[in-house]
Amino acid sequence: MASLKVTQIKSEIGGKHMHRETLRSLGLKRIGHTVVKEDRPEFRGMVRTVAHLVTVEEVD
Q1: Rounded distance, CA 6 to CA 29, Å?
Q2: pLDDT of the residue at 15
Q3: Above 90 in pLDDT, residue 13?
Q4: 50 backbone dihedrals φ, ψ, rounded to 5°
Q5: How many CB atoms lie within 10 A of CB 46?
Q6: What b/e readout covers 10-44, taking b as 16+ CB neighbours within 10 angstroms?
Q7: Distance CA 35, CA 4 (A)
Q8: Residues 6-23: what's their mean pLDDT?
Q9: Rounded distance between C-alpha atoms, residue 57 and residue 15, angstroms
Q10: Which residues pair with 5 in a beta bridge?
Q11: Predicted pLDDT at 6
Q12: What is the pLDDT of residue 60?
C-alpha cells in the first residue's frame, strides 16, 4: 500500500484554529517536520484542508 510523506513548509501562526488542529492531528509540530501516513481518504482530506501549509509526496 502506498504512503504519503507530508512535510510542513509554512507556519501555522495566524491561521485558522481548525487548520492548526489539523496539522496537530497529522502529527506535524514545526516547519520542516515530516511524517509518513497511510494513503487513506481520511488523511487525504486532512492534507487537502491544509494544502497551503504542507507539501505531499507519494512513497511506496
Answers
A1: 12
A2: 95
A3: yes
A4: -115, 30
A5: 20
A6: eebeeeeeeeeebbeebebeeeeeebebeeeeebe
A7: 8
A8: 97
A9: 23
A10: 36, 57
A11: 98
A12: 84
pLDDT in tens, 19-57: 999 999 999 999 999 999 999 999 999 999 999 999 999
CB 35 within 8 A of CB 6: yes
**Helix, strand or coil, per DSSP, at residue 35:** strand
**The three three-digit cell numbers of residue 39, written as one number:** 494513503
37, 54 Cβ separation under 8 angstroms = no
What gap in Å lies between CA 3 and CA 14, rounded to an integer?
Answer: 30
What sign results for the dihedral spanned by CA atoms 14, 19, 25, 30?
negative
Q: Which amino acid is at 39?
A: D
